[in-house]
Write a structure and sequence with these properties.
Elements lengths: L1 E4 L2 E6 L2 E4 L1 E5 L2 E6 L1 H11 L2 E4 L4 E4 L1 E6 L1 H7 L3 E2 L6 H8 L7 E6 L1 H4 L5 H4 L6 E5 L4 E4 L1 H7 L7 E2 L4 E3 H15 L2 H17 L2 E9 L1 H12 L6 E6 L1 H10 L4 E2 L3 E9 L29 H13 L3 E6 L2 H14 L4 E4 L5 H10 L2 E4 L3 H4 L3 H5 L1 H4 L5 H7 L2 E3 L10 H10 L8 H4 L6 H15 L16 E4 L8
Parallel strand pairs: 1-6, 2-7, 8-15, 9-10, 10-11, 15-16, 16-18, 18-19, 19-20, 20-21, 21-22
Antiparallel strand pairs: 1-4, 2-3, 4-5, 7-23, 11-12, 12-14, 13-14, 17-18
Helix pairs in contact: 2-8, 8-9, 11-12, 12-13, 18-20
């Protein structure tokens, strides 16, 4: 047992509550209140008393949507974010190590064009580089030979571009034939150390494949899992759980919480599914990954195993598909991203009891979004204030797509790229207060991820906290 005394301890942000003392026993909060009482409780038991000397304490951050394996892998990938030319991109890739060079973060809008396999063929190793959204990749001939992909509409053999369902197949081949279980264990360990250093101590790990699934159980069993993980598995693992009649699992740190599904792609690749064509490319309205029937069928299967369902839906038509499927399956699950939400969809979200995981830093990264969707629809983009009015909202980074640093996310939610991005002028009324942002990033994320004993520093909650020299409610 230990007591934290003489602190400025925020136990929650909604409602806002601050105390001076905290008592922790067996990694859970047992008392939150006055320092003198906390000190007496612990002195009676012979525990440790820690004098905070006025420092600030708050619940640790909970990232409600990221990819531990890809985050860990990205820490060892070639970082292509911010590259402005093919020459710069190649220079960075030539410094890559390993038998295969993996890279991430390129953006055709910054490069001025899409990279192609011809460009990547200048490197004499297999090369596989993800766009910053991780919904599109490009491979050189050496890598394509290893992948041996079947021809399809999502695989451009002449350019080496791979997207959506073809990219799923490429990832499957990489996971099963190129990366080992030991690689996954290593990547998850790298990711969790990175997150802990940033004050993130709980996560919802999305799109968990079979090797990541095994790696998580190994780390849980060996006591090496240092962050709380709510895992959302790929549908392929659902088959195995059904065969074994395994239901939702809750361990010390690991919870097998739900299944992750998709309706569409991303704004950046123009594959997010819109109800009307893209403003900067009227030839397309995006691409459907799964229809209502497919989603509803998997939802029914998940429901039988007491599993939650998370559905990726960025475009408004993609969101329609997700909401229709939830209604059809009679299930209240969660939607990932909800990036473009029409007015009429807000009430449906409320009525269906949908939880939402959103990524405020997309506001900064998607600086071009007004041109992509047009000024008429821009007011519906990343409308966090309205979403918080109708649903439980959790914050996330989708790391490694966005930086895992939670303070960058909080800043984006509060300031919405003021003076930096055009979207601010259309959505300034959607800016959150710091209190609202911190709620979403703590207890909001926990609620969205069905981890209801995390995100506050109240009796009965896990004692996941961070200590700071300054007041988190005062943005600099």
């Amino acid at each position: 047992m230990k007591a934290l005394i003489n602190g400025n301890i925020y136990t929650s942000f909604r409602p806002l509550r601050k105390v001076s003392g905290l008592v922790i026993s067996n990694d859970r909060v047992v008392y939150a209140g006055d320092s003198s009482v906390a000190k007496r409780i612990v002195e009676l038991s012979g525990g440790e008393v820690i004098d905070l000397k006025g420092k600030y304490v708050m619940p640790a951050f909970f990232d409600s949507h990221l990819h531990l394996d890809e985050l860990g892998m990205s820490l060892e990938m070639v970082d292509l974010r911010g590259t402005k030319s093919m020459k710069e991109l190649l220079e960075r890739l030539k410094g890559g190590k390993g038998r295969i060079i993996f890279g991430f973060g390129w953006d055709q809008d910054e490069l001025g064009e899409y990279p192609t396999k011809e460009v990547l063929n200048e490197i004499d190793k297999p090369v596989f580089i993800y766009r910053k959204c991780f919904h599109v990749a490009v491979a050189n001939d050496a890598m394509l030979e290893l992948l041996n992909l079947e021809p399809s509409k999502d695989f451009e053999e002449d350019t080496g571009m791979i997207k959506e369902k073809a990219l799923e197949e490429a990832r499957k081949i990489i996971n099963e034939k190129i990366l080992s279980l030991e690689d996954y264990i290593h990547y998850i360990e790298r990711a969790q150390e990175h997150l802990i250093n940033l004050g993130v101590k709980s996560v919802a790990f999305m799109s968990v494949n079979e090797k990541a699934f095994k790696a998580l159980f190994y780390l849980e069993r060996e006591g090496k899992l240092k962050v709380n993980v709510s895992a959302y598995i790929n549908p392929s693992i659902l088959d195995k759980l059904e065969d074994l009649n395994l239901r939702r699992f809750n361990g010390e740190r690991l919870s097998i919480t739900g299944v992750k599904l998709f309706t569409d792609g991303s704004f950046g690749a123009r594959t997010a599914l819109l109800s009307e064509p893209y403003s900067d490319d009227p030839s397309t309205s995006g691409e459907m990954v799964s229809d209502e029937e497919e989603l509803a069928n998997i939802m029914e299967r998940a429901k039988r195993l007491k599993l939650d369902v998370a559905v990726h839906a960025i475009g408004d038509r993609g969101l329609d598909i997700a909401l229709n499927a939830f209604e059809k399956a009679k299930l209240s699950g969660r939607v990932e991203h909800a990036s473009l939400v029409r007015d009429d969809q807000l009430e449906r979200i409320r009525e269906l009891g949908i939880r939402l995981s959103v990524q405020p830093h997309f506001i900064i990264s998607d600086w071009w979004v007004v041109e992509r969707v047009g000024e008429k629809r821009a007011r519906w983009v990343y409308r966090f204030k309205d979403l918080l009015r109708v649903a439980e909202v959790g914050f996330s980074t989708d790391a490694p797509i966005e930086p895992a640093d939670p303070w960058l996310t909080v800043e984006a939610a509060v300031n919405r790229g003021k003076g930096v991005v055009k979207l601010y002028e259309f959505t300034k009324d959607q800016a959150l207060t710091v209190e609202e942002a911190l709620h979403c990033y703590t207890y909001g994320s926990a609620r969205v991820s069905l981890a209801n004993d995390i995100g506050k520093l109240e009796p009965g909650f896990k004692a996941e906290y961070i200590v700071m020299d300054r007041d988190p409610l005062v943005m600099k």
